[in-house]
Task: inverse folding
């Protein structure tokens, strides 16, 4: 059997879909799974041995260059690739119009959320069969339940993301026990105060951990550098790919992050993870994993340094 998964974005959503590939591979030995994903997140399914081929799309870039000939050539190439993929089933777990249109390009039976559970109800019109999945479930379980209903199997009780951290080494990365601090996020109201990160980092150093602070944009790197400068021995990491970040996380004893996809990646890799929420509610999209994964705070109620430290100590004692 050949299956195409469609889950294109965002980073956290793509990570939340990894257990679907792991469940399918366990239920159907020998299944061939391909995955259609936004090009900037293609490194995520490439971490999963269950995924045979990752097929990048560039919807975000195409929208910015809709009148470019190169854009339409890329779309044409995607259409030919999906139409010739020989898929038995196409499963769209995203439930958006854009993902449904991508699924419609592929051959095979198209399955997805019904109109009452799709994030955009119009998407359900593009599927051959639809399934209801309650909206009040965590995103990981919504994906898993949709796949279980679509393929007719009982949901495995154990949560398995099915990925392993790649080996990673770099001259700048300390050999000491690491705590990865994920201080950057997509919105300013999701940030945790720099003074709190510094206070936390000093306590982590007292516990024998060296803070490493990855960051992406110039503003994020400047923030990470300011925090690292206040923490003896801490390292502000250079720009890294998702695969390289997975390698860094795989070497860590602990990850602490705000509401960011990289905190979900840490939990997916089985790294003890503490997530800090300041402007959003973690109930449906917080970190979830088979290992230690805790969500602290809520919309308008950020956790204190003391709360985070108490949870850190719980993680380290496990």
Result:
């Amino acid at each position: 059997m050949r299956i195409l998964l469609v889950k294109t974005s965002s980073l956290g959503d793509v990570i939340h879909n990894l257990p679907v590939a792991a469940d399918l591979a366990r239920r159907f030995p020998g299944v061939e799974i391909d995955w259609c994903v936004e090009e900037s997140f293609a490194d995520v399914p490439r971490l999963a041995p269950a995924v045979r081929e990752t097929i990048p799309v560039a919807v975000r870039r195409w929208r910015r260059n809709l009148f470019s000939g190169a854009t339409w050539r890329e779309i044409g190439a995607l259409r030919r690739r999906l139409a010739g993929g020989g898929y038995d089933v196409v499963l769209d777990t995203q439930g958006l119009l854009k993902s449904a249109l991508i699924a419609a390009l592929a051959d095979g039976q198209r399955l997805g959320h019904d109109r009452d559970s799709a994030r955009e109800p119009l998407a359900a019109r593009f599927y051959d069969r639809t399934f209801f999945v309650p909206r009040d479930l965590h995103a990981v379980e919504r994906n898993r339940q949709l796949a279980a209903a679509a393929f007719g199997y009982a949901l495995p009780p154990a949560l398995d993301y099915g990925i392993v951290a790649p080996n990673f080494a770099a001259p700048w990365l300390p050999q000491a026990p690491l705590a990865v601090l994920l201080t950057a996020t997509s919105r300013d109201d999701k940030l945790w105060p720099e003074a709190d990160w510094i206070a936390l980092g000093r306590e982590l150093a007292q516990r024998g951990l060296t803070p490493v602070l990855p960051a992406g944009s110039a503003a994020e790197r400047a923030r990470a550098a300011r925090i690292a400068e206040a923490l003896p021995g801490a390292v502000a990491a250079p720009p890294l790919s998702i695969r390289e970040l997975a390698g860094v996380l795989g070497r860590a004893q602990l990850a602490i992050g705000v509401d960011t996809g990289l905190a979900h990646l840490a939990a997916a890799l089985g790294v003890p993870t503490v997530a800090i929420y300041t402007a959003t509610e973690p109930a449906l999209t917080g970190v979830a994993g088979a290992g230690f994964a805790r969500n602290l705070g809520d919309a308008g109620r950020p956790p204190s340094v003391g709360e985070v430290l108490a949870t850190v100590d719980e993680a380290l004692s496990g």
